[in-house]
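Re: the 475-residue chain
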Amino acid sequence: MLLTPYRVLDLTRSYGMLCGQMLADLGADVIQIEPPGGADGRGMGPFLDHTPDPEHSLYWWGYSRGKRSMELDIAAQAQTFEQLVASADILIESEPLDGQAALPLAYEPLAQLNPGLIYVKISPYGPTGPKSTWAASDITIAASAGPLAMTGDDDRAPVRVSIPQSYNHAAAEAAVGALVALHERVHSGRGQRVDASAQQAMTLATQGNILSAAIGETTANRIAGGLKAGELRIRLTYPAKDGFVSITHIFGATVGPATRRLMEYVYENGFCDEATRDKDWVAYGLLLATGEEPIAEFERVKACVAACTASKTKAELLDAAMQRRLLLAPMTTIEDVVNAEQFADRDYFTRPSGTGPSAQGDYPGPFARFSQTPMSEPLAPPSIGQHTAEILSGLPQASPRESVDSNDAAQDRLPLEGLKVLDFMWALAGPGCTRILADWGATIVRVESSSKLDVIRTVRPFMQGDELPEKSALF
């Protein structure tokens, strides 16, 4: 297991729990420290068998598998807490600043106890700045970060994603920050503080639109199932007999040919004429921009596509997409995901080891697969204080984490300096990953096809409105 030698103290009570769970998935010994009576998150639904009990919270189970639970009054049992800190590699907390002041959670004294400690702080807006003490919820964080401006119908108030997302974004960034700091500690011998702001983490979810505002381009506004830029309404969601499908129905050198194949399918099924099928789908965006093709005509085209998809099931549309190489995918429900053949074939859902109610269900499996160090089967989510006695008995034998002599030369190094990455990615997700590695000092060698243009080079916003491959701000 990748992180087997490392111990993590997880003090998150409801928000930010995903950070510790990711580290537990990677093999770290994650101790969930809960206040007497259990953490706040245990009171969050839904609940098994509709039983509102702290030992039946599906929310809590979803983020605590693989961890051990210790019931501890940190303020009253400060010496025990200090022993835990001295034996830990990473500490994670997401206490509000006013709550943190009531607990011995300040970084400086904890770093004196353990100079090698990596202290991870997850907060709505960061521990400094004018918003640092503001109350926050998932919807206010999404609003302040920008994505909320693009979600919902354009004729009413915006809506957030139904399942809270903001703190999960922050928790994932915090986990990456902890790993980077752990890697850096090998060179410098020093621990450090990692600051993860949910607001800043969520800005990435705006993708190119935060860049649009920065360079003075038109930003996209919300319309349910798509985006609106000026008078142009891009529709991404289309009906099916049994639900909805998502179609990347845009234009340009990269995506235009797929739109042409889509329109051929619509024509063959009798929902448009030859002239509609044969429009110039590569240059269509320019035709709309210049007015050569009226917006009303594009609205008619989308109605043709919608009528076609509404006559088919999601499975039928997926079969057509696979045969014809269409940029179309079914929009799956939670039930669809649980019963998906793809997940079943890869043995994704797993039954954790352990006893009690939390060990009776299936859980999402590993988020990554490693050929040499695979993730082991996780422990079932613990009951309140299940491992308290076990952890306390091990404390006298737990060695304090000693900091290696600080290497002054390492202070001028970026954490990933010396790492070289050969990047064959394209579009957005892959390059987004390697750009983060570059931020931390890795050398990224980007290899692009000489015959197939990276799709993101063709996507707005463009610098000075110039739609050349070298001017895409998103790229």
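The chain has a mean pLDDT of 90.
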